[in-house]
Amino acid sequence: MKHRSLETILRLGVKELWSLWRDPVMLVLIAFSFTVSVYTAATAVPETLHHVPIAIVDEDHSPLSRQIADAFYPPQFMAPAMIDHAQVDPGMDIGRYSFVLNIPPDFQRDVLAGRPAEVQINVDATRMSQAFTGNGNIQRIIQDEITDFMRGRGRAVSPPVDLVLRARFNPSLENAWFGGLMQIINQITMLSLILTGAALIREREHGTIEHLLVMPVTPAQIMLSKVWSMSLVVLVAAALSLNGVVRGLLHVPIDGSLPLFFAGATLHLFAMTAMGIWLATLARNMPQFGMLMILILLPMQMLSGGTTPRESMPQLAQDLMLAAPTTHFVELGQAILYRGAGFDVVWPSFLALLAIGSLMFYLSLRRFRTTIGSMA
Questions:
Q1: H-run or E-run covering 56
Q2: Sign of the torsion formed by the C-alpha atoms of 288, 293, 296 and 302
Q3: How many CA atoms lie within 13 A of 297 on its CB side?
């Protein structure tokens, strides 16, 4: 009896795979989500500076001002354009320069004399990501060059502590490394909802759900078939994307255990596919399902810790998001892929995903039985 039940679940799952294979829109969505979407999310809008245009108005013409100008070079900045005051506003109005640095007359003399010396930084704040990052970087570069200049003349005081920074996993702080992996995690969450929910709604719209009702199958078997088949599709697509796009195109090194990561992804898919079925039982058609998914998916992804660290969120939001599977999946994904953590570190996340998934599957099964009973 148990063997026959497993065979039924297997055959129903194969039916789901064939239905998906005959749906070109879903196939295009899967391919786009794990290729173009991952690549563009990692590279299209970088938070780091890359060939940013900068201009300098040098009214001092001193060794210090020339040393500061020489400190701006690729790949963060383009070679600085030396301009005068009349070119500042027109150049920024047409977007030719993102930053204009104005070094006033007698700047070096004031610095050497210990008098207050000011440098003006004009920022094109319409380029928001560059404006916030670049403003701080320019100030740091200027301060470093002044310190080196003063040290060369024996005027600088050595600090009592020499701070040396070392960045783990991402030594050059490339935003693409973080963005590519996080996009795969987000796509696993999104597609698990879409595929299972769309599979159930498609059967309802095509009338095949009525055929299942007259067959000797149980609601649990129908749900499990959708869970394993759609989870398999997402796992295969994620594995291909992780090796082809992230490792191949973006050249992101991954030192963590991929089998451990995909084991956690399987538990996450168990919870999310069950949630997708639950949403599909609430919606009458695909547009309604899409609206419900947006209401559920966007807050879960934004507050999971993938976009903003959870420590910077209000305590209430942190506590509430412990009930969301995305929080624990992002936590274990970052620990494994970024820091090479083992099971001894991420087992609490595995346990939380198992508990949330089991509860979500139970609630979805109850709702699914009620829905089928009303259709019978």
A1: strand 54-58
A2: negative
A3: 22
Which backbone phi and psi does 130 adopt, to 5 degrees?
A: -75, -35
Determine how β-strand 54-58 pairs with β-strand 81-82. parallel
For the entire predicted model, the pTM comes to 0.75
Inter-CA distances, 42 with 36, 176, 199, 227, 303, Å: 10, 4, 30, 29, 20
Say which residues have a Cβ less than 8 Å from residue 372's Cβ, sequence separation at least 6: 209, 213, 219
d(CA 41, CA 180): 7
149 vs 130: CA distance, rounded Å: 27
pLDDT tens column, 77-134: 888 999 998 898 888 888 888 889 999 998 888 888 888 888 888 888 776 667 777 8
- For the chain, list the domains and their CATH numbers: 2-44+174-375 (no CATH), 54-152 (3.40.1710.10)
